[in-house]
Specification:
Blueprint (H helix, E strand, L loop, with lengths): L1 H8 L5 H17 L19 E3 L4 H17 L5 H12 L15 E5 L18 E5 H23 L8 H12 L5 H9 L2 E2 L2 E2 L9 H5 L18 H23 L6
Antiparallel strand pairs: 1-2, 2-3, 4-5
C-alpha cells in the first residue's frame, strides 16, 4: 500500500492528502496487530482479562480503566440492540480491547477468547495464551518506518530537500511516546519537539478537524464548480475514494481476499 501510494502521490494533486490517509492506516497496522478488520471470533477477548501494566501515574491508570469500563458498559445495557452491538463490537477489529491499542504509552495484557495458534509458542489450541503488548515498542517502530516513507516522498517530489536525521530525534520520539497523558497532552508534547533548538512543527499549525470540512460551505460562492477542485477538502475526498477502491478492489484481491 505505501509503495503504491508513494508512486501515485508524485503524479496526483491530492498526493499529500493520500499520504496522510495512508499514514493513518499504516500506523494502525502496528497498534492493531493481532486483530482483523472484519468480524471474526478470533478478535474476541475474555472479559476481565484486559489489564494495564506498568502505568506509572496512578491517575492515568484510573483514567484508562474508567475509559475501558465506559466502553464495556455501552454494550451491556440489557436490550436486544445492545446484545447485537456487543457481539459485533467484540468481534470487529480491536473492539474487544477498547482503546488500549491506541494508547502509545501503554503496556497491557489480555487473553483471546479463542486462542490463536502460534508458531513461536507451540502451544496447543486449547492452551491458555496471555498476550502482552508494549505499545511503546510498536509505535516507535511505526514512527521510524513512516519517517522513511515521508522522506522518500520528499526525495521524489522536491529539489534538494533537507532532512532531519531520524537518529537525531529518535530518543525524543521515544520519550514522547512514553508520555502518560490524554490526547491533548500528547499533542502538546509533539508540538514541543525541537531539533537544534528549532520547533519541528510550525507554532501556528494546529490540527482542527473542522477546517477542511468547513471549506464545503464555500463551494456555492465560487464562480465555477471547478474552482473547488483545488481545496483541501475536495482533494481529501479524492484521495479517500481512491484509497478505498485500491484497498478493497486491488490490494486485498491480490492476496486472495474478495470483498463484495
Amino acid at each position: 500500500m505505501m509503495r503504491n501510494h508513494l508512486a501515485l502521490a508524485q503524479q496526483k494533486t491530492y498526493g499529500l492528502e493520500l499520504l496522510g490517509i495512508a499514514a493513518h492506516v499504516y500506523m494502525d497496522t502496528f497498534s492493531h496487530s493481532g486483530f482483523s478488520g472484519v468480524g471474526s471470533s478470533l478478535n474476541k477477548v475474555i472479559e476481565g482479562s484486559i489489564k494495564p501494566l506498568d502505568v506509572k501515574d496512578p491517575k492515568m491508570a484510573d483514567y484508562v480503566l474508567t475509559k475501558l469500563g465506559r466502553f464495556v458498559k455501552r454494550f451491556k445495557i440489557g436490550s436486544v440492540i445492545s446484545f447485537f452491538a456487543e457481539e459485533s463490537t467484540s468481534s470487529l477489529g480491536h473492539g474487544a480491547v477498547a482503546t488500549f491499542p491506541d494508547r502509545p504509552y501503554l503496556k497491557w495484557c489480555f487473553e483471546y477468547e479463542y486462542p490463536h495458534e502460534s508458531s513461536e509458542s507451540n502451544l496447543p489450541i486449547e492452551a491458555e495464551q496471555i498476550e502482552t503488548r508494549d505499545n511503546k515498542i510498536n509505535f516507535f517502530e511505526g514512527c521510524e518506518l513512516l519517517y522513511s516513507y515521508f522522506r522518500q516522498h520528499a526525495e521524489d517530489v522536491y529539489d534538494s530537500p533537507e532532512f532531519i536525521p531520524f537518529d537525531d530525534i529518535a530518543d525524543d520520539i521515544k520519550a514522547i511516546i512514553a508520555v502518560e497523558e490524554d490526547c491533548d497532552g500528547r499533542v502538546d508534547e509533539w508540538r514541543a519537539l525541537k531539533w537544534n533548538n528549532t520547533p519541528i512543527i510550525e507554532p501556528k499549525v494546529r490540527y482542527n478537524k473542522s477546517d477542511w470540512e468547513n471549506q464545503k460551505f464555500d463551494f456555492e460562492d465560487k464562480e465555477e464548480a471547478k474552482d473547488n477542485i483545488s481545496t483541501n477538502v475536495y482533494r481529501f475526498h479524492q484521495a479517500a475514494a481512491y484509497h478505498r477502491y485500491y484497498v478493497l478492489k486491488d490490494l486485498l484481491p491480490a492476496y486472495g481476499i474478495a470483498v463484495y
